[in-house]
TrEMBL record:
GO molecular function, one term: ATP binding
InterPro entries per UniProt: AAA+_ATPase (IPR003593), ABC_transporter-like_ATP-bd (IPR003439), ABC_transporter-like_CS (IPR017871), ABC_transporter_ATP-bind (IPR050166), P-loop_NTPase (IPR027417)
Protein name: ABC transporter ATP-binding protein
Origin species: Thauera mechernichensis
Alphabetic keyword roster: ATP-binding, Cell membrane, Membrane, Nucleotide-binding, Transport
This protein's record includes keyword Transferase: no
Database matches in CDD domains: ABC_NrtD_SsuB_transporters
SUPFAM superfamilies per UniProt: P-loop containing nucleoside triphosphate hydrolases
Family membership: Belongs to the ABC transporter superfamily.
Pfam (any one): ABC_tran
Signal sequence bounds: none
PANTHER family with a match to the protein in the record: ALIPHATIC SULFONATES IMPORT ATP-BINDING PROTEIN SSUB, TAURINE IMPORT ATP-BINDING PROTEIN-RELATED
Length: 262
């Protein structure tokens, strides 16, 4: 059974149909790049997967069960900008994700639990290359560093699905390349299912194991809101990389641990 099943999903706001009849199966560990014209509903689709909004019609299933229409730790999201909290340090931005669910009233843990949350956060920040910036504030970070922080913030909850809405759109080409490498490494290591909206087709081709093209094929000038976008192309990509990841995932843990250290 597919991890994500999208069954005849429609979305509309007032009398404007945005998405029509999306049908899609996504397996655990796929990396889907979503492309399409501006305004055709890609972010709307991510918001439905996140549980921020419900489909107007149709259903989304996760592991065969209806998706709960509220944010849930199994789903992490990174936006192009403004994902991180400006008044918290880098370390606190990431540790907060662990603290909030465990201490919902005060929002903070104390003693050993707090130390553990901070140690875990610091380890992940080292993994994304931010170990030298734990006490800095987001405004003191470059764009690339802020996105590393946003990725760490999303990953600390160990989500199964990572949703990325043009995460590298505001970055310089050199920094983008570094971020691509980091994202692929994290994807390879974690078995995450990734859905990434991008306006850069080459980025989609480089990173994705699958390219989903959203397009509005029907248009009625008399009723501009009548039709929405559909997925018009669903192309498999980078099959070698997918196969490599599957082969790595099949190796015993002691071997992969040694590989990572190496
Ligand atoms: N909450 C909302 N209420 C009303 N209309 C909305 C709402 N959210 C999105 N829309 C409309 O739905 C359409 C799709 O928007 P969406 O942001 O999903 O497109 P997109 O493909 O992600 O665009 P872009 O590539 O420019 O980010 C737009 O016309 C937008 O104005």
């Amino acid at each position: 059974m597919s991890f994500i099943q999208v069954r005849n999903v429609w979305q509309q706001y007032g009398d404007q149909t945005v998405l029509e009849n999306l049908r899609l199966d996504i397996g655990q560990g796929e990396f889907c790049a979503l492309v399409g014209a501006s305004g055709c509903g890609k972010s709307t689709f991510l918001r439905m997967l996140l549980g921020q909004e419900r489909p107007h019609r149709g259903q989304i299933l996760l592991d065969g069960k209806p998706l709960v229409a509220e944010p849930d730790p199994s789903r992490g999201i990174v936006f192009q900008r403004y994902s991180v909290l400006p008044h918290l340090s880098v370390l606190d931005n990431v540790a907060l994700g662990l603290e909030l669910p465990r201490a919902p009233l005060l929002g903070r843990l104390f003693g050993r639990a707090k130390a553990e949350a901070r140690t875990q956060a610091a380890q992940l920040l080292r993994r994304v290359g931010l170990d030298h910036a734990l006490d800095k504030y987001p405004s003191q970070l470059s764009g690339g560093m802020q996105q590393r922080l946003a990725i760490a913030q999303a990953l600390i909850m160990k989500p199964r699905m990572l949703l990325l809405d043009e995460p590298f759109g505001a970055l310089d080409p050199g920094i983008r390349k570094d971020m691509h490498a980091l994202l692929l490494e994290l994807w390879q290591e974690t078995g995450l299912t990734v859905l990434m909206v991008t306006h850069d087709l080459s980025e989609g081709f480089t990173l994705g194991t699958r390219l989903l093209v959203f397009d509005k094929v029907r248009n009625d000038p008399q009723a501009p809101g009548a039709y929405g976008a559909r997925i018009t192309y669903d192309l498999p990509l980078n099959l070698d990389r997918r196969a490599t990841r599957e082969a790595v995932a099949a190796l015993p843990a002691h071997v992969t641990g040694a590989l990572k250290t190496a």
